C-alpha cells in the first residue's frame, strides 16, 4: 500500500511539473489517459530512483562532498530526463525537452512531493 501511495504522490508532483515548467509535457486525448500516463511515468521514475540513484551516489560520493550536495540537483535532473527517455521507449506520451526543463522539473517534483507528504501523511501499517 505504501508503494501505491508514493507512486500517487509522485504522479501528482509530475503533473504539477508539467503545468509549471515549459519543456515538460504529458499528452493524451483525455484526462484519464493523461492521468494513467502520469501514474506509469511515476512508477518508472520510482524504479529509476531506486535502482540507479544509489549507484550514482556511491560512485560519485566525492562529488557530493565537494559540492556540498548540490550535484544532487544535477543527478535528479538527469534521472528525470532518463525517465522521459524510457517513457518514450515505452510509447508513453511524457516528454522532457532538455536539461534545463529537467533540472527545474526535478526541483518542482521534489518540493511538491515533500509538501504532499507533509499534507497527506501516510498511515502506519501498525495501526
TrEMBL record:
Keyword Membrane: yes
Record organism: Actinomadura spongiicola
PANTHER family: SLR0284 PROTEIN
Transmembrane segments: 33-52, 59-82, 102-120
InterPro entries attached to this UniProt entry: Phage_holin_4_2 (IPR007165)
Full protein name: Phage holin family protein
Source organism superkingdom: Bacteria
UniProtKB keywords: Membrane, Transmembrane, Transmembrane helix
Pfam annotation, one family: Phage_holin_4_2
Amino acid at each position: 500500500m505504501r508503494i501505491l501511495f508514493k507512486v500517487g504522490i509522485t504522479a501528482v508532483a509530475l503533473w504539477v511539473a508539467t503545468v509549471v515548467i515549459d519543456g515538460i509535457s504529458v499528452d493524451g486525448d483525455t484526462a484519464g489517459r493523461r492521468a494513467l500516463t502520469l501514474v506509469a511515468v511515476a512508477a518508472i521514475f520510482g524504479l529509476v530512483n531506486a535502482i540507479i540513484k544509489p549507484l550514482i551516489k556511491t560512485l560519485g560520493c566525492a562529488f557530493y562532498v565537494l559540492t556540498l550536495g548540490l550535484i544532487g540537483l544535477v543527478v535528479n535532473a538527469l534521472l528525470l530526463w532518463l525517465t522521459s527517455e524510457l517513457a518514450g521507449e515505452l510509447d508513453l506520451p511524457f516528454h522532457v525537452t532538455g536539461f534545463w526543463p529537467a533540472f527545474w522539473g526535478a526541483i518542482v517534483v521534489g518540493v511538491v512531493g515533500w509538501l504532499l507528504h507533509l499534507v497527506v501523511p501516510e498511515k502506519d501499517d501498525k495501526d
